[in-house]
Design goal:
The protein is built from 8 helices and 4 strands. By secondary structure, it is mainly α. It has helices at residues 2-21, 23-36, 76-79, 82-89, 97-103, 150-162, 166-182, 190-210, and strands at residues 42-48, 54-60, 107-109, 135-137. The strands form 2 sheets. It has a two-stranded antiparallel sheet with strand order 1-2. It has a two-stranded parallel ribbon with strand order 3-4. A hairpin with a 5-residue loop joins β1 (42-48) and β2. It has one domain (2-210). The termini are far apart. α1 packs across α5.
Length: 212
């Protein structure tokens, strides 16, 4: 009952109220992002969601569009400003995902939506993470945030799906608040960390294949 109906109802109510109450914060952040980082203010990226259906995730942008003399974008580290780092460290850049939750693309709690390019590499068991809506936060995020290894992160996602219930969601919700305020295990360049961890995993799998 909770998984099929109540969870979605709570997502709509909570995200709707949050969007209304936080609208002044959205306005201030939008002005600051536009002033300090440029436009567009909102960063859009395709991610796999429920049943691997692709949706467009929304975040506040955290990097500039600075380019070199050849018109190529500079490395991420050079385009990430102190203000952008602040947005990532405090997770304020993820506030627009409340709209994704309200629309039904995401849930407040669930496995984080990763990059579309990772889809072919999940094991059958790891694909279980896509049998629920992806979340703004999840069990793997409060179990190590950005520095949990890929196998451990995906295992936590599967664990969440297999044991999903109201009490677990409440626990993850309050643990997330604690983690964000303590800034535990946070990398301001989370996308780079994700890619780095994934590359380590793929390298290890390739080595196993080479030795078979």
């Amino acid at each position: 009952m909770y998984r099929r109906y109540i969870k979605r109802i709570l997502d709509i109510i909570i995200s709707g109220i949050a969007l209304l109450l936080l609208s002044p914060v959205f306005l201030v952040l939008a002005i600051l992002v536009r002033t300090k980082l440029g436009s567009p203010v909102i960063f859009h990226q395709e991610r796999p969601g429920y049943r691997e259906k692709i949706f467009t995730l929304c975040k506040f942008r955290t990097m500039t569009d600075e380019r070199d003399e050849n018109g190529e974008l500079l490395p991420d580290a050079r385009r990430l400003t102190p203000f952008g780092s602040f947005l990532r460290k405090t997770s304020l850049d993820e506030l627009p995902e409340l709209w994704n939750i309200f629309k039904g693309d995401m849930s407040l709690i669930g496995p984080r939506p990763l990059l579309v390019g990772y889809l072919p590499y999940y094991t059958e068991r790891e694909r279980i993470r896509h049998t629920v809506r992806p979340g703004l936060t999840g069990l793997s995020q409060v179990s190590g945030r950005n520095f949990l290894g890929w196998d451990e992160r995906l295992a936590k996602d599967v664990e969440y799906v297999e044991h999903l219930n109201f009490l677990m969601d409440v626990k993850v919700f309050f643990q997330t608040i604690a983690v964000v305020f303590r800034s535990d295990d946070v990398s301001v360049d989370s996308e780079a960390v994700e890619c780095y961890l994934w590359e380590i995993r793929q390298k290890r799998e390739d080595e196993v294949i080479d030795h078979e």
